[in-house]
Fold this sequence. Notes:
B: mainly alpha, 2 strands, C: two-stranded antiparallel sheet
Amino acid sequence: MPLLQARNVSKNFGGVQALKDVSLDLPESAVLGLIGPNGSGKSTLLNIIAGVEKPTSGLVTLDSKRIDNLRTNRVVRYGLAKTHQIPKPFSNMTARENVAVAVLYGRRNIHSPTPALEEADRILSMVRMGSRKDAPADSLTVQEKKRLELARAIATGASILLLDEVFAGLSPEELKDSIQLFKKLHDELRFSALVVEHVMRAVLSLSQKVMVLEEGRVIATGSPDEIVHDEKVIQAYLGSKNPAA
Amino acid sequence: MNIQKPGLTLYGLFIVMAFLAAAALLFGVAVSSILVFLLIYAALAYSINFITGMIGYVDFGHVLFMAIGSYALATLVSYYGANPLLGVGAGAVLGLVFALGIGLVILRFRGVYFAIATVVLVLAAYNIVLQFPQLGTGGEIIFNLTLQPLTPYFTIWTIVLIEIALTYYVNRSRIGFGIRAIKSEEDAASSVGVSPQRLKLIGYMLGGLFGGAAGGVYSWSTSGVTAGPAFDFTFSLLMLAMIIIGGVGTSIGPLLGAVVVYIPSYFLLTSVAQAQPLIIGLLVIIMALFLPDGIVGLLRRSNERLRLVLE
Amino acid sequence: MVAVELIVRDLAFGLMLGCVFSVVAHGLNIIWGVVKVVNIAHGEFIMLGAYGAYFLNLFAGITPLESAPVNAVIGLLVGYAFYYAFLHRELRNKQTITLQSEMVTLAATFGLSLFISNLAIILFTGNPVGVNYNPGTLQFGYLHVPLAALYVAIVSILIIAGTWLFLEKTFIGSTIRAYSQDVTATELVGANPATVASLATALGFAVTMAGGALLTVWVPVGINPLMGALYAPISFVIVVLGGPGKMWGSLVGGLTLGVLIDLVQAFATAQIAYAAAFLILIPVLVFRPGGILK
């Protein structure tokens, strides 16, 4: 039984159909890549799963409990956390306080600040930000803010992470570093993840399976290797013969 | 926040409160009739601090709760001959209930929309109160109590003491983390499990509760209530000004703000009464633009030792 | 028939009052729509506009209609200064205004509102003054329409139409519209965002202060330092009704409010009428947060 399921999810914005009959399965500890051109509906799908938006029709279930009608903060209690494409740190706090909020309000059963801050320190070290724990969140670099997003999502105790372009905008060096970090975290924590990404290299090297969206529909699903050779996918990324480039 | 010596601010505030109690007991009526209004101002400042200071939702209509408390006490005392303490309690409960009802609707509006909704609610309430002759002609109720100034004094003193302790506790507890997260990024807060709706409602209801209680003591101390002054924006504005000047969200800021706003108004009343709100306005502008944490922020920046203890 | 005549009369006066409400709110609408800031001191600038008309009438002998353009020029300068003193620090280098910046601007303009109204009490005293301007009345059957109110209504609509034309048809106008959609878009057309934002703010103030002059026709003996406390909330409601940034929204919101107040007043009291006018904001925000216009 897959852990996270979406069934025939559709979403209309006014007259525009952003998603049409999208279904997906995310089994335990799996990493599913989600790619597609700009405006193909990736972020909308992520938002619906995370409870930020409600689907026009269709279902999302987590361990066969319906979650598409829940608010974001309720969904977090079920063990699902999403990062923001544009990082949204709590700028009036330090890095460790940012993470402590997630520890306190996730599903970790840690309710007092002192142990929460200690736990936050541990998680920050895990994402290699231990040395920056006392830095005010708004003084962090873009890469550090993205790591902070990741740290907060992990800190909620989520078993499913929805990662919205956490690898975008990084230098090749930072990207390599981040991919390696992600693999290490995944080995340790065994979460499952839905990874939305423009950076093809990251998606292909992390995911066991990749799903391709175009204009709100799924046009291909398969292993990374199958996807790069799929005619329809190459068509969708018109202009670049090889999307991996 | 990086506070190194937790508790020092709280102990300091308790010492100040002890002095205020001693001053009233030693010098009696002369001092307590001045200080009672300082404490009412402080109680109001702490009450608006729960929603505007801590959560960042600017409440221009907080005087509504004060007015509700004032009317509750005035009605109970003048029509039913009740003990004023009961009136204060009724004011607090009514403030809480109104905050719950209003909050469920208007806390859904964000930022400026919330602020504007609070403005129109007060104006509407003012016009509605004038409709009820039961509340006195022109919304006026006056009563005569053989005033024992120390009773209202120690009532408001107790209210402020509770507010200080609660503010301090909330800031340091789990709920404080959630509240600061909402203040910074409401959406991001809910994406890590914080329920903004619930925490905002808690803050607003605390504001309503203490606003109502302070309003009760206010009409007790002034032996009456009239709709004009009761719903006058002046008090809403003073409350906002006090926390902006003192330092929003902090435990000590509202008291500092109350001192800055009230004490000069008492002594300057006869000489340059007009200049007082003018100076407050100027201070608010300067604080809002250049010193977002008010006097507390200024003190923390000026002295390393203060930076580590002031909360 | 008497009841019908009364309703027609109230409707006519409500529409004319609505026009002047519209123009008074319109300046707020421009600033709110473009730079996404609500100026809490809006009412104080209406008040200054009204005093402007009063003093121009007193010393230069000109009518409120003639003071409006003079006020507008002053408003441009004041608005430009206001942008750099109050908004620039919070808006520069930002794509969208954050909640934190929103709070800062609310608090700072709130302080400004306190400052200006109390300065006005010192300078102008608390005693209300008025402008005497009465060009006669026009008679339609049983309906007597004061020409002053009619002229003001027409000028109000012209001002709103003028700003609409300016924003739709001129290059500067389209740059301002681009800024309101997306701050980066202004850079793409080669304009400096701060310049665009300050221009929009100046335009908003020009309209506000001109509106203050026109308003004096409706408050013949009521110009006073605290009048902003009534007209600012009315402006907030109008802009929310019409939808911030929608130029014709000011007129729709203003007319709705003007008619609502005059009609409710006919059947109940003035207090109930104003309470209704303010409370209408709440259901609109709940059910149509973008305003009543599509």
